[in-house]
Amino acid sequence: MTLMYLLWDTFYAALKLVTGLVALYQIVLSVYGIWHRRRPITHAPQKRFAIIIPAHNEECVIGPLLESLKRQTYPAHLYDVHVIADNCTDGTVERARAHGAMVHVRENRAEQGKGYAIEWMLARLKEMGARYDAIVMFDADNLVHPDFLAIMNDHLCSGDRVIQGYLDTKNPFDSWISVSLAISYWFDNRLWQYARARLHLPCTLGGTGLCIDYPLLQEMGWKATGLTEDLEFGIRCVRRGIIPVWAHDARVYDEKPTSFAASFRQRLRWQQGHFQCAREHLLPMFLEGLRERNLAKIDMAIYLFQPMRSMLLFAGAMIVLGLHYLSPDPTDAASNPAALMVTNLWVAVNLILFLEVPLALLLERVNWRAYFALPLLPFFLWTWGPVTLQAYFTRSNRTWYHTVHKRAIRLDELRER
């Protein structure tokens, strides 16, 4: 029994060593996200934008988005709004047209999903002979800060070609699920995305609030029709030597799921798409990064490893239960001092990483109510384990599931809060 315990304990220590090193890497990088100075806008409006909004049965939420786009500080003649009514069976078409958007009706039941809709719209723009400098993508449930296009214009004029805006939340306090997701995003925005921007490392694309240089898009093609089309395109950019940059002050607000079931389905889709991308790109990109001494590629490969890290952490928790069951004597834990040392270091590293969460809330000056949700966050983070485990065993699934949006919140309401 003691030998069995030692084998399990050693294996568990190896898991903690790998996941702990990844956590330590993140801690080191996050230091660069502590100090933030707003980037001044130095370029006058000159870029012409095509705003693309894929919408599947979004009549409840698309109106406030289109209203927020009309209130951009950017000249109205320099951007057009194109709504893709993708297999809609509600009043999305009528609602979008009533708000002055150009609506493109798409009917294709065989190829469903946001990636296919975007690819179809880009081909349509090309057929129309439309002349744009950049494409901007939003989800139908979003709200957009008035300076968004002005900031993107400034980045494009500075030579950036793929820019990701700040992903904020419009309904953080609807439920413990939505506030947990909001906290996760606030942390990622400041101590993951912004920190990497300061180090000239690639940000991860979020699927909305995304701006892409149109000539680059025509050159590369979209070709991202999987469950995580944003991640696919971002990986192709990095492997091509193009660094997606982070625009911390260009804010987009989206609706987070409020129920555990809806959140589980959404995260399952994300993780399935993540595993699909990792299977194709993780090892080749990591090896390319080592060979070329390219930290951007290595960093993106580490990001692709994150779902595996989550799954290993979950497996580790299950192993703890197994160790407790297999060990007839609590003193057996002291029989493997190397594993005990690794455990202590792992606990310390992950404790520091968790304490960075309230630090991120403080730095981002979020509403004080978010701090009261912190005790629930460990449980929410733990639920990523079963999500990721199921995603791993269903990673070949490419079925797209629509996330229903219901909160028709307006930008003025967010400011009042």
Automatic annotation (TrEMBL):
Keywords associated with the record: Glycosyltransferase, Membrane, Transferase, Transmembrane, Transmembrane helix
A Pfam family it matches: Glyco_tranf_2_3
Keyword Metal-binding attributed: no
Segments crossing the lipid bilayer: 12-35, 301-326, 338-363, 370-393
Gene3D superfamilies per UniProt: Spore Coat Polysaccharide Biosynthesis Protein SpsA, Chain A (3.90.550.10)
Cited InterPro entries: Nucleotide-diphossugar_trans
Protein family membership: Belongs to the glycosyltransferase 2 family.
Protein's recorded name: Glycosyltransferase family 2 protein
